[in-house]
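Lesson 9: reading folded outputs for more than one chain in a single document. The general rule is that every protein is listed as its sequence immediately followed by its structure tokens, and records are never interleaved. Here is the first one.
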Amino acid sequence: MKPDINWIQIPSGYATIGSNEEDMKKASEYWKDKLLNPTYGREKKFQKWLYKEFPSYQPYINEFFISDTVVSNELYQSYCDETGQTYPESLTNEELGGGKDHPAWGMDIEEAFSFCQWLSGKLGMDVSIPTEEEWEYAARGNTRNQYPWGDEFDPSYCNTHESNIEKTTPVRHYEKGRSLFGLYDMGGNVEEWVNTKYHVYEGGIEVVDDLTETLGSDYYILKGGSFARGGDLCRVARRHGKHPDPVFRFTGFRLVTRQKQHIKVGV
């Protein structure tokens, strides 16, 4: 049986990628005293992270189709059972893993690529993970919204540290937190791999921080934040990476295809 993916059509158009000075100022003023480690705001570390998003630019994005949720435990288990791959922690950790309708997490990006190769064969079409530009476009279109649902943070719209849930939630739990195009969990629950390595935006500045010092300067980017970390990470423009600290192991992914044939487009 073919996996049933609810695809959302993202029309061709111009996207708003990254942050301008006004966006960064707004984020800094709101989050500098609310970070999980308040010294980050005082030490200007948070402001340094923001410069990874600078400057903002507006590329033209061709039409694509993206899954309305991240890959669930149920779907990822089917992949593991069929291919013999090792279960990720989301399928073995009873305390944090959740049920079959919770997000699969704990895999690195190579495992995400392998899953997409398997699913492409099952569906008879090319499936991958989104690029960073596609992900941001699906999260906020051509707006300057800081978050997938709007311009103000609200812990009742997403699963982050501020929500005090401390584990994953079902992938279609937050109706009010859906993005401009109707996608779930573009902010919070689990961080999402994108098929783009960190690079300085044209006209931006080189940022040296704990990630570049640990991973080098070309690590794959994670977007959206997770239940284990603060809401500052679920800002659409935020550019994170796989920090080796175990608290950052809650990584999953969603799917894209650029082939309209043989897919069911959701709403």
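And here is the second record, again sequence then tokens.
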Amino acid sequence: MFRLYPLLLSGLFFALPLRAAKYFAFTPKALQAYEYATSLRFGEAYTLMAQMKLEDPNNLIVHHIDNYIDFFTLYIQEDEADYRRLKKNRDLRLDKIKAGDRNSPYYLFVQADIRLQWALARLRFEDYLGAFTEVSKAYKLLKENEELFPDFMPNKKDLGILHAMVGTIPDSYKWGVKLLGGLDGTIAQGRKEVEQVLAYAQKNDFIFKEETAVLYAYLLLHLDNNEEEAWQAVAGSSLRPRENPMHCFVMANIAMRTGRNGKAIQLLEQRQTGKAYFPFPYLDYMLGLAKLRRLDKDANPYFQRFVTHYQGRNFIKEAYQKMAWQELINGNPTGYRGYMQACLEKGYSIAGGDKNALQEAEHGVAPDISLLKARLLFDGGYFQKGYQALAARRPDSFAYPEGQLEYYYRMGRLLHGLKRYDSALEYYRFTIEKGADSPYFYACNAALQMGLIYESQGDPARARAAFERCLNLSPEEYRTGLHQKAKSGLVRLQDSAG
């Protein structure tokens, strides 16, 4: 009889319900939930995820999708109360994921991806130490995962972006770079890795195909300084700007940065809206800005809608400044003063654009209408019209030194846009000569633009000198962004030199 005990015990063991293993799988329901989450259709995503947690409670991929929703919520609305509330979810999700299958390539990747999303969220709320710490931990997880699963494409997507950006971090954040011990790379290396992922996605079903296309486009635009390729990366992708507000944002943003202002207006006007989508007020700001850059007369309702519905801190002062500019262009100086008073009283002066708007409001003097139109038309890619707006003016027609400095700068930018490079370089030199000690950003960006021209002409020595000149100038406005672009230029020159 005693010989039967082992058989009875084993039978009892197998008859009892086992504690099922936790795993990661993009099931059909998970794929649809991811699609809803990245389309800002959060209600439908939550419904599917609730079903997954009941029907498939051991599939931990649901926590990754959940984190996308928190990330988009924070990045779009920029609400401090949401940030404090949702931070608690991060640790809970990571703990749940750590209970998953360690032999899955998603085990380390999902932890790293959640940390990278929170790094971006922390940057949004000026937690720079927390952001660098998240990136450092994410990189270590990705490198470990790479050793275990070298051909796992989602991992390569994240590593490619980190490798591309690490060498371009401005010197003002050197303390943060020290936290990224072991993280190195170049723009060329990162670009190659992301291109490998895109090539894989063309031949295989790849859940992160559209996400990778977006990352690649921004790598080309911001790090590789290749505007045309950046636009083609999104224009030739499977992004759906009519149905997906995030896709609309990306394509309109890149269109506005590559001289396709009219296309941006078309994309923003044709997007779907409604209660099914999480509110995205910044799209109204973008549409107002694009219309203002075309010198349309109906930009202000979009800015007004933005300031009414936006919960964050950034862009508020800028929005009131832009409404003031609209009034000035429309010939209403009283309206200009009213909106600039609102600029003084509302919003925060944290971001560069808001600081610039506040300075204008405090200065109490309306911008010169010719310079303003030239600025807006240049930003919209209407270079010939912008040039015509300034061509009749002379530097000595401006009664104050800042006006003369801006004239040289704007002429340089417009001639640059018109590909009249020799003339553009001459005006950039005037700008640096007269504005190197100025608190304005004109000289710093003039040096950067000179570097970009020389780089495009295959003159690395002059390009390097111009990029270094940019880094040696420290304007009160836009310094971090300009220095990051100059650093990117130096990295590209180093890459091309081998």
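What the second record shows: The radius of gyration is 26 Å.
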